[in-house]
Design a protein that fits this description.
single chain, 78 residues, alpha+beta, two-stranded antiparallel ribbon, 3 helices, 15% strand
């Protein structure tokens, strides 16, 4: 973030919701990670903002969300 700040370059946070074996991270871990991000980094002006919130992308959740919404196993989902 220091280099981004020095170069006036904006960043976003991308969170991988799966472990190395493509299994969903435990909810408690995800929640703790987001609390850490909020408390330690989110106020830094180096982040791209949508409204007043830093741009945050949660990756690796297609299968979990697809199952929750009744769309099968998420294979081929966009």
């Amino acid at each position: 973030m220091t280099v981004a700040r020095e170069l006036d370059f904006k960043v976003a946070m991308i969170y991988q919701g799966l472990d190395f074996e493509r299994r969903p991270q435990p909810v408690a871990r995800v929640a703790a990670d987001f609390v850490t991000f909020r408390d330690r980094f989110a106020k830094d002006p180096v982040f791209i903002r949508l409204g007043c919130k830093p741009l945050t992308i949660w990756s690796g959740t297609v299968v979990v969300l697809s199952r929750r919404h009744g769309h099968g196993d998420g294979a081929g989902a966009c």
